[in-house]
Design brief:
Layout lengths: L1 H9 L4 E7 L9 H14 L2 H18 L7 E7 L2 H9 L5 E4 L4 H12 L5 E4 L14 E6 L3 H14 L3 E7 L3 H13 L4 E6 L6 H11 L4 E5 L2 E2 L2 E2 H4 L2 H8 L4 E4 L1
Amino acid sequence: DLAVAAASRIGDATIEALHVMVDPRRLDTAAEEVDFQLMREVEEGSAQDRAEAVRAAFDAWMARNPAAAPSVVWRKCVGSEERRVSQEARDFDLLVLARPHDLDAHDALHAAFFECDKPLLLAPGDWTPPASGTFARRIAIAWNGSDPCRRAVTGALPLLRRADVTVILVDGSKREEAELIERLADEAITAEIHHFARDDEELGEQLVTQAHRLSADLLVMGAYRHNQLIEWLAGGTTRHAIASADVPLLLSH
């Protein structure tokens, strides 16, 4: 649903629905990883069972969305989740994932963050298309002047050009503010500025709260490392934003 909503907003886009079939009997990886994947079959069924269930879900979605059918193509491949997601992402401009709910989804998200040089559009688990039928009408940018933020803004430009934009600055400096306003002006995008001061709440949760106060239906932000440790594993702003967000996030590492 989110991929179609974004493609409709951008225009002239194609969508590929990718399922990686993680078949332990066909993995070229360590024996421990193969054994771990085989253990999943007790609770989740075989790789073939899971692939058939995913395809059935896709076919059911297509039946509910006949107008989208010409622009959505099914694709299945076999291999390691992270490796195949990284390989397939090379030919696309934007990755769209849901908040992880199982091992494969976590592996796909990790690949999207740290191995694919592409922006990532992440859907909350219970996201539904807006009643207005138009997605990304109001976009909030969480800005701190970092390289991940710059890449996220660049990835979001096709959507930003069609939206009302507000920049969220957390104890931000005038220099950081001026830099982004100039960058957006180069793209003929005007933006309002929204300042707020940090409190004791986790910053990721605060950013989501601020996006709600601004009635934003998309939050653009960077994904970060701290002290060379992957934040996704160690916790921090990105992880808390993902955990608390009930609006889509456009992220870039």
